[in-house]
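Design job #97: recover the sequence.
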């Protein structure tokens, strides 16, 4: 308060103005005061360029009410200041009063001086009579601060955040939110956080075009032009601007095979081997679609930018092809949607060990991706806003009161606590078993596949995840109940033969006459 008043009084130009055929010395227009104070606040480190002109007018209203300024007729005390041509001036006496010496931030408090109490060794007779008695109420009006005891405080100037600092904040808060959405005590059971590159997260959030597609800094990592043309051709069929050559019967199938071959030759899936367990753990949330969408939103932010862009373009093409009624069938025996899932599941998600069961996990996840791709592959707005607000808070000058060890506007930090080895193993097991158990139950309840295929898939599951399988089928009897043996009916001819009485065989002799 005092600092701004001093700056304003020192920086405000004063000159002669005329109003209603009368001249006034050393005064200023209201609009000139707004211009000057707005510029001062914008260049002040405690306020900054975010201060608006309307906020400046509100502050000048406070100045008029507390007699920091007055109109040319000496009137003040109301907040009727407007951004116009009315004339104002500074009062003859300074509105500033000396503050008591500011103690160090401890338990002491600054006490208001009692203006009515005489100093020791003086008497009321020797005190000169003043026209206005300065009491605590007037002091409050002049300086607009609370009456009573105000805790000692100091300004805390934050160090400037570097780009590396901001990227680490993004990584920390993004992983913290992912852990909360997945409902895990620790991400260590599904992810090595050291492999998460903070720069990738920031690039995926801010380096995007109008459609939300990632723009790459390294052009060499872009998809080849001919693949992009092929994908656009099928995604926008039959109105494809890139299609300049005449088509032939089966043309669209050849284009589709070209796209499948390109993505099929990749050495690593788009969701990468490192993040396989993270995406598999999301399968346990598919019963709660909103949670699953948020978990996939955050998980896809961890991908390298080139992987995220290819995933965005590929899944968008798959979804459009599945819904395009004008596109001729790409297969005689398989529906288009099923064909999309079968053709691209492995290039989107698979583990490094290439377990046969990964195909089922990937198919389930890819189907959910196709249904919700617009939301999943966009930047989560709530997460972005919370991180940006936190960064701005860290860069802003703060007021720290005595006895406050941390900022009151921030929640207290959470700390890790040590757990036993047995508890860690339990968390690791339960965290990854839930989606696998759900997948096993889906195989068991699937009535569309044949008994032979179901037995084959169950054997694969038992071989890959014996512990999860043992929980579902603890005894051979429970497993046998899934495939009850059918009683074999004997053929009617055989039954008729058995009903005949036993007739001994009679050898006949022939005699020649």
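Job complete. Output follows.
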């Amino acid at each position: 308060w005092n600092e701004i008043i001093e700056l304003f009084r020192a920086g405000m130009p004063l000159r002669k103005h005329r109003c209603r055929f009368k001249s006034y010395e050393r005064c200023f227009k209201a609009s000139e005061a707004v211009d000057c104070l707005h510029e001062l606040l914008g260049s002040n480190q405690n306020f900054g360029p975010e201060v608006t002109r309307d906020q400046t007018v509100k502050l000048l209203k406070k100045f008029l009410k507390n007699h920091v300024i007055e109109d040319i007729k000496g009137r003040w005390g109301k907040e009727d200041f407007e951004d116009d041509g009315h004339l104002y001036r500074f009062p003859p006496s300074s509105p500033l009063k000396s503050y008591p010496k500011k103690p160090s931030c401890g338990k002491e408090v600054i006490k208001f001086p009692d203006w009515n109490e005489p100093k020791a060794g003086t008497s009321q007779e020797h005190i000169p009579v003043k026209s206005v008695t300065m009491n605590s109420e007037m002091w409050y009006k002049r300086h607009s601060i609370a009456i009573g005891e105000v805790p000692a405080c100091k300004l805390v100037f934050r160090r400037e955040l570097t780009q590396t600092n901001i990227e680490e904040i993004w990584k920390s808060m993004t992983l913290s939110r992912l852990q909360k959405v997945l409902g895990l005590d620790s991400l260590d059971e599904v992810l090595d956080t050291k492999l998460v590159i903070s720069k990738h997260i920031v690039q995926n959030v801010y380096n995007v075009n109008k459609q939300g597609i990632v723009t790459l800094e390294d052009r060499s990592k872009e998809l080849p032009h001919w693949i992009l043309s092929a994908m656009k051709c099928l995604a926008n069929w039959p109105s494809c601007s890139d299609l300049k050559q005449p088509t032939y019967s089966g043309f669209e199938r050849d284009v589709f095979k070209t796209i499948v071959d390109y993505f099929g030759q990749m050495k690593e899936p788009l969701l990468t081997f490192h993040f396989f367990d993270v995406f598999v753990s999301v399968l346990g949330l598919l019963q709660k679609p909103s949670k699953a969408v948020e978990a996939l939103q955050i998980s896809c932010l961890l991908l390298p930018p080139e992987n995220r862009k290819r995933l965005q373009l590929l899944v968008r093409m798959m979804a459009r092809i599945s819904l395009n009624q004008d596109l001729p069938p790409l297969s005689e025996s398989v529906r288009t949607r099923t064909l999309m899932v079968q053709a691209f599941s492995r290039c989107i998600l698979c583990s490094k060990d290439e377990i046969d069961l990964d195909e089922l996990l990937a198919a389930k996840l890819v189907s959910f991706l196709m249904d919700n791709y617009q939301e999943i592959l966009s930047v989560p707005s709530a997460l972005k806003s919370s991180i940006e607000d936190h960064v701005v808070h860290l860069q802003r000058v703060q007021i720290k009161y005595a006895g406050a060890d941390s900022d009151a506007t921030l929640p207290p930090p959470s700390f890790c606590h040590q757990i036993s080895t047995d508890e860690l193993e339990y968390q690791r097991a339960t965290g990854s078993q839930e989606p696998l158990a759900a997948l096993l139950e889906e195989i068991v309840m699937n009535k569309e596949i044949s008994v032979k295929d179901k037995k084959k898939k169950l054997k694969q599951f038992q071989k890959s995840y014996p512990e999860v399988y043992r929980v579902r089928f603890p005894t051979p009897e429970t497993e046998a109940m899934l495939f009850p043996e059918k009683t074999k009916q004997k053929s009617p001819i055989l039954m008729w033969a058995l009903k005949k009485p036993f007739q001994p065989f009679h050898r006949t002799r022939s005699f020649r006459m």
